[in-house]
């Protein structure tokens, strides 16, 4: 399993990379047109569902929360019954069904499709992430690189999807867009089926130990070290809620704000709003390796680089990104055109991604390092669940911007909160690191470097 020769990653990584890339293509493609479809007028060339904006955002918040909340049962099913590998297979099937249902043009089909997707992501997402961790030894630095690559794969899917699905959905027909997302998922599922031969011994079900005397499953209580690590993971989940609550403004409030209050013209053409949904992923692909490289460089220089420290820095940088959005909201409400320059949006997304890269792939790795083996999938599920609450929080804040607050106030509020919270983490970093009992330390076993 461990791979310490030359820096070449196990073949299984590429199977998981491409499966998840396509799964994310379908997820983010559908997501890019979710609020736009619901809020589009019910009549016209490309009729939508004709909902109020605040209702569309509320629904979006519920949906993006539920996909990740269902990662908890998804993780438990893997730990207790099926193992991660089979649960991912099951999730993929549910996702194919869900996305194809969305291609049908009725609101009932929309609801039904969403239910299947929620169940499918719940089964697939936490478990495929845990499987990446199982490809490497616990303290192998290649593991961090494996997660960085996996994360870039996610974002190749997330980048292309809003461009293609968004374009087709927004300009031709929403349901063709949803159907295209389904084709992406089907490709992902085929890759996973084909790639089973490279996943031998990874993500298999591990039956609990049966006590020969009583014939019952032996309960092994957690050790003190394991308990301490669980405490740190609990904090990680709180960070996840805050970070994703800020970051996920992208698909909701930032999406509608960009549509209405940002000048999207370049020369004589106008950039479709949904294309901005590809920006996060574009930046991840662009700076994913450089950011990982910088953290790795700091690690080698002996500078602070623990996961908790990275998360603190990441939260602060994400928060600072909101200053640019506040500026855009201020301009939109004061300029005679009523529209802000798109440069502020581009800068905000860039900072959000620097923050994301210091938090999200790092947390996936952290969870697989800190969790007791028998609980990895469940802890991964809880992490995604926390990110789901973050998505819902994002939706609530977004709704408020259109009801009793304003986009400017919301953006400023997020800026202040994230910076203060990130600083707090950095202040307590030593204490928190002690609770990991060395699980976060990487041991160089191979001199050859790779991204
Ligand atoms: N962008 C990441 C992905 O799609 C993060 C998801 C999450 O943790 N909420 O995988």
Q: How far apart, in Å, are the first and last alpha carbons?
A: 20 Å
What characteristic shape results from the CA principal axes?
A: globular
Order of helices and strands: HHHHHHHHHEEHHHHHHH
* Strand arrangement, major sheet: 1-2
Can you give keywords for this protein?
451 residues, mainly alpha, Growth Hormone, Chain: A, two-stranded antiparallel sheet, 16 helices, 1% strand, disordered C terminus, binds glutamine
Structure description:
The protein is globular. α1 (11-39) runs antiparallel to α7, α6 runs antiparallel to α7 (174-194) and α8 (224-247) runs parallel beside α14. The protein is built from 16 helices and 2 strands. It has helices at 11-39, 53-69, 71-82, 84-102, 107-134, 141-172, 174-194, 224-247, 253-261, 279-300, 307-334, 342-357, 360-370, 376-402, 407-427, 429-434; strands spanning 265-266, 269-270. It has a two-stranded antiparallel ribbon with strand order 1-2. By secondary structure, the protein is an all-alpha fold. The structure holds glutamine (GLN). Glutamine binds next to α14. Residues 24, 68, 154, 244, 360, 384, 387 line the site of glutamine (GLN).
């Amino acid at each position: 399993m461990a791979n310490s020769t030359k820096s070449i990653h196990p073949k299984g990584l590429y199977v998981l990379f491409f499966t998840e890339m396509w799964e994310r293509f379908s997820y983010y493609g559908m997501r890019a047109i979710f609020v736009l479809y619901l809020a589009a007028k019910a009549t016209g060339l490309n009729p939508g569902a004709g909902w109020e904006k605040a209702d569309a955002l509320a629904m979006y918040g519920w949906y993006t929360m539920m996909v990740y909340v269902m990662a908890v049962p998804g993780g438990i099913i893997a730990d207790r019954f099926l193992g991660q590998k089979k649960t991912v297979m099951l999730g993929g099937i549910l996702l194919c069904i869900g996305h194809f249902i969305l291609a049908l043009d009725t609101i009932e089909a929309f609801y039904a499709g969403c239910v299947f997707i929620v169940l499918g992501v719940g089964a697939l997402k936490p478990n495929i992430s845990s499987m990446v961790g199982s490809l490497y030894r616990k303290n192998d630095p290649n593991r961090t690189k494996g997660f960085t690559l996996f994360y870039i794969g996610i974002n190749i899917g997330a980048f292309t999807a809003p461009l293609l699905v968004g374009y087709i959905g927004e300009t031709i027909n929403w349901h063709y867009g949803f159907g295209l997302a389904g084709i992406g998922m089907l490709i992902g599922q085929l890759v996973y089926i084909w790639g089973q031969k490279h996943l031998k011994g990874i993500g298999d079900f591990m039956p609990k130990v049966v006590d020969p005397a009583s014939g019952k499953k032996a309960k092994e209580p957690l050790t003190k070290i394991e308990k301490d690590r669980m405490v740190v993971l609990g904090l990680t989940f709180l960070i996840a809620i805050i970070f994703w609550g800020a970051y996920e403004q992208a698909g909701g409030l930032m999406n509608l704000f960009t549509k209405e209050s940002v000048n999207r013209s370049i020369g004589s053409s106008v950039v479709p709003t949904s294309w901005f949904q590809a920006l996060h992923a574009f930046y991840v692909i662009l700076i994913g390796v450089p950011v990982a490289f910088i953290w790795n460089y700091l690690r080698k220089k002996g500078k602070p680089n623990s996961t908790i420290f990275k998360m603190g820095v990441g939260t602060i940088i994400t928060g600072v990104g909101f200053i640019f959005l506040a500026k855009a909201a201020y301009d939109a409400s004061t300029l005679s055109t009523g529209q802000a320059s798109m440069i502020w949006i581009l800068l905000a997304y860039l900072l959000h991604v620097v923050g994301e890269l210091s938090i999200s792939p790092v947390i996936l790795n952290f969870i697989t390092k800190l969790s007791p083996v028998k609980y990895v999938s469940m802890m991964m599920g809880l992490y995604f669940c926390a990110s789901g609450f973050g998505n819902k929080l994002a939706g609530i804040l977004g709704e408020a911007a259109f009801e009793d607050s304003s986009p400017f106030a919301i953006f400023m509020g997020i800026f202040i909160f994230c910076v203060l919270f990130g600083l707090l983490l950095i202040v307590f970093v030593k204490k928190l690191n002690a609770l990991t009992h060395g699980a976060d330390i990487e041991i160089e076993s191979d001199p050859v470097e790779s991204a």
